[in-house]
From TrEMBL:
Signal peptide (residue range): 1-21
Protein name stated in the entry: Tail specific protease domain-containing protein
Organism the protein comes from: Chitinophaga fulva
Sequence intervals crossing the membrane: none
GO cellular component: outer membrane-bounded periplasmic space
Pfam families registered for this protein in UniProt: Peptidase_S41
Keyword entries, A-Z: Signal
Length: 494
């Protein structure tokens, strides 16, 4: 046993030493320029949506401006902070840049995180939870500055580095709500103390608090992903069904001993059998998952054939790589004018949904209310955009973080940006949802009833979007002594 402990101690010490060296190692300005050029080159030749929201000329100008800021040797973290805004500016939530795999874990073992959960609104930030020993800072207090940097300046640095589709902001602000200390550490500074300028009841004061370790402040949904015993939930209360879908990812759903199609089939069978006239679908924080599941779910809201995706495109470089043994799984992309169109897979169904889709035989005929927020993305955002386009539901909450017209995702290899340890995630397919390309361009699915999250609602634990849904349902019920499922006030039966 002592030998094992000695070995573990030696291993941990060696690991920490290597991580520390990686943090302090400097790369020459020439090496930094090469890394930036390499990242830009990979994006321009392999990521088909690089110019989806910004022109090639704009991309080049921004690239040159980033390179111009490299004046001398830089550490990996310093270079990361230069390159991250360039990668994010594309407007693709699936395109990402991360530091070396050991870097974040090494930092998490030391106290360097701001011990507060903050809610940011515009250029302001408010305390939601205080994990420090200084309890004079209360929920609802405003943080005016951190370590001498004003909150508007802090947010000007953070927001351009947080990925989202198009020009979306709701996803960025929600990411800060759940991960502000981590983003601050990655983009602004690694600090062991924080001097905070705090506004409490119109009185300003400066408080100095020590940094915290992640393990001491992380909670479910704060610096950690939400954990749910079950990813799918359904219940009926009175005249309303409540369906929650936390994810469309089969791997996660199966961990709760659930099967997506089986669960959804039973849900809609129950709705029909009981004649339930209203359905609230909670998709908030659904970050996507299986396209097969998402498309299958959409079919329960149509009574005639419909389009889900319009097409999938890839770059010329990727199209030419579909050859040899790869043809076992994938068909050769077809060129149409200057575009290369991705085809259905031979052995997988992930790319089947640009064909005409058939409605479910057990499609729902009642009123549908969908709750959305900035963490509705990827395949979840595909569902919301298709349902919104066809007026199949009333949407309540905040704009989805995933794009209304589609996204860049599919096959997403990681590219090592040598000589650093940074990895660039590059989506190889550009998806176009079958919606009006002129509607909500560069934005997500927009709510019919916008309900903005506020710090007061958070502190009080109030669920305003759900309250609005119930007000709409109750208001409609009052208009009719008998609710007729084929005659809906807000959404015509289809």
């Amino acid at each position: 046993m002592p030998k094992i402990l000695l070995f573990l101690s030696f291993t941990l010490a060696t690991h920490a030493l290597f991580a520390q060296k990686a943090l302090t190692k400097k790369y020459s300005s020439d090496e930094c320029h090469c890394v930036i050029d390499n990242a830009a080159g990979v994006l321009e030749t392999s990521q088909p949506g690089v110019y989806r929201y910004h022109s090639k000329a704009e991309f080049k100008r921004y690239l040159d401006s980033v390179k111009a800021t490299v004046k001398g040797p830089m550490t990996e973290l310093e270079l990361y902070r230069k390159l991250k805004p360039l990668v994010t500016r594309i407007g693709c939530l699936h395109t990402d840049l991360i530091t070396g795999v050991n870097y974040k874990g090494w930092l998490d073992r030391s106290p360097n995180l701001l011990p507060f959960q903050l809610y940011c609104e515009g250029s302001r930030a408010f305390v939601v939870k205080n994990y420090s020993a200084d309890k004079s800072i209360a929920p609802g207090d405003e943080i005016l500055a951190i370590n001498g940097r004003s909150m508007p300046d802090v947010l000007k640095l953070l927001l351009p580095t947080i990925p989202a589709d198009g020009y979306n902001q709701t996803m960025k602000y929600l990411a800060l709500y759940h991960m502000f200390p981590s983003w601050y550490r990655s983009i602004i500074e690694v600090a062991d103390t924080f001097a905070l300028t705090v506004k409490h009841n119109s009185t300003e004061k400066v408080c100095v608090v020590p940094a915290a370790k992640k393990k001491d402040i992380a909670q479910d949904g704060f610096l950690e992903e939400f954990s749910y015993p079950k990813q799918l939930a359904f219940k009926v209360t009175g005249n309303t069904g409540f369906l929650t879908i936390h994810t469309f990812a089969n791997s996660v759903i199966k961990k709760g001993d659930q099967r997506f199609k089986e669960f959804i089939d039973k849900t809609f069978e129950e709705l029909q059998a009981k004649g339930i006239p209203n359905l609230v679908v909670d998709l908030r924080y659904n970050t996507g998952g299986s396209d097969v599941n998402a498309a299958y779910f959409s079919g329960f809201f149509f009574d005639e054939p419909y389009r889900y995706w319009d097409r999938i495109e890839v770059t010329d470089k990727i199209a030419k790589k579909i050859k040899g043994v790869v043809r076992i799984w994938y068909r050769k992309p077809v060129q149409q004018d200057s575009a290369w169109l991705w085809q259905k897979g031979k052995t997988v169904k992930d790319f089947d949904f640009f064909e005409v889709q058939q409605p479910s035989p057990n499609h729902y005929k009642g009123n549908v209310y969908v709750l959305i927020n900035g963490f509705c993305m990827s395949s979840c955002a595909d569902v919301t955009s298709v349902l919104s386009c066809h007026k199949k539901a009333v949407f309540i909450g905040e704009e989805t973080g995933g794009g209304y017209q589609g996204n860049n995702s599919g096959l997403m290899p990681g590219v090592n940006l040598r000589p650093t340890k940074m990895v660039l995630t590059v989506p190889l397919q550009e998806y176009f949802t079958a919606v009006d390309p002129k509607v909500n361009f560069g934005r997500g699915t927009m709510p019919d009833y916008p309900v903005k999250m506020t710090v007061d609602d958070i502190v009080k634990g109030e669920d305003k979007p759900m309250e609005v849904a119930m007000e709409l349902i109750n208001g409609q019920s009052k208009q009719h002594d008998t609710v007729v499922m084929s005659s809906r006030t807000f959404i015509p039966a289809r």
